[in-house]
Amino acid sequence: MNKKGIVAGNWKMYKTPGEGRKFIEEFNNLMLKIDDVEVIFCPPFPALFNIDVILRNSPYKLGAQNCHWESEGAYTGEISGPMLAETGVDYIIVGHSERRHIFGETDEWINQKVSAVLDGELKPILCIGETLEQRKRNETKKVLETQLQKGLNNIDNISNVMIAYEPVWAIGTGETANTVQVKEAHNWVREILADLYTRDVADQTAILYGGSVKPNNAAELFEIKDVNGFLIGGASLNIDSFKEIILEVKGILEG
Ligand code: 13P
Fold this sequence. Notes:
Blueprint lengths: L4 E6 L6 H13 L7 E6 L5 H8 L5 E4 L16 H5 L5 E4 L2 H5 L5 H13 L3 E6 L3 H5 L3 H12 L10 E4 L13 H18 L2 H6 L2 E3 L5 H8 L6 E4 L6 H15 L2
Parallel strand pairs: 1-2, 1-8, 2-3, 3-4, 4-5, 5-6, 6-7, 7-8
Bound molecules: 1,3-dihydroxyacetonephosphate.
């Protein structure tokens, strides 16, 4: 299996359209040679149009952070996949833990979103992960299994799906999961995918890690066999730290 290297920045609710544009312009001007690393920016909705224009001539990809499962309707405050597609996004993050835990998204909604994103010929990044309480109660494996089973319910083809393992307790806390924990969880996710689909499909599926990834821990995490890249919050908001992480991943891919 050729190891994939994906670095996605989830800006969450940070950066206005103007700030986002400035950031991307500056980043683009670095003319980084990213080679086989796939770099994805996921800004807040209003910044998408602004940024798409700059990214069209770059090797970078664009993603959104959420969407509704219907393509249109009376859903005040929501935004649909087809609307996002017109902004030039290739990816949509689905089921982020902040959506699950702050906004009460259920596995059933998340499943509908995965399905809608795929129907719209975009690529979902399906986030899963246990809380600290669940980990302490030794429920991590069960939680990941349930979130994957339900999130991918009735999805026959996952060739356009990425999975992001983001332990809730490691998000924005500065407390990264250690390499043993990440290795175990990613291996488990791959086993579940092999069980739900086939070994080959499982091996082809990119599994990202997210949770306090920084330049100083990116290399040891990316060395883990089943880690195909990162979904990065805080460190993606800073040009230097985001660049450093990309270069760490690139360095390891190049061996
Ligand atoms: P941090 O990198 O800030 O911990 O956030 C991770 C995350 O939630 C990415 O989706």
